[in-house]
Amino acid sequence: MDDLPDFLVARITDDNHAYAYVADTLGGEALLDSHLPMLDLTEQLARDYQAMDPSDSRRVGLAYALRVLAQAYDQHPAYRGEWRP
């Protein structure tokens, strides 16, 4: 599970680059406006999880949320089946 936040942050970075390319070449501002805030919030959750003390009672719920969010990337070769909720 400890690798999952890093996996999510890497995928979000990839998505941010892809969306920036779309905006630059195709003028996809509406796409950016709707998706970037969600990517930013998902990245924040992943970083919060990494910074959280293992004894924090919220950690289990946040881990589940990250597993659910990571399913969006289940076709990526680095995705691990053990991360499924």
Question: What's the structural blueprint in terms of helices and strands?
Answer:
Elements: H1 4-26, H2 29-51, H3 59-70
Helix pairs in contact: 1-2, 1-3, 2-3
Q: Could you explain the architecture of this structure?
A:
With 85 residues, the protein is mainly alpha-helical. It has one domain. Helices cover 68% and strands 0% of the residues. It is built from three helices and no strands. The longest helix has 23 residues. It is globular and about 45 Å long. 12% of the residues are buried. The model has no long low-confidence stretch (mean pLDDT 87).
Summarize the structure.
By secondary structure, the chain is mostly helical.
Features:
85 residues, 3 helices, DUF6221
**Backbone structural class:** mainly alpha
Shape: globular
Q: Return the average pLDDT rounded to an integer.
A: 87
Give me the count of strands.
0
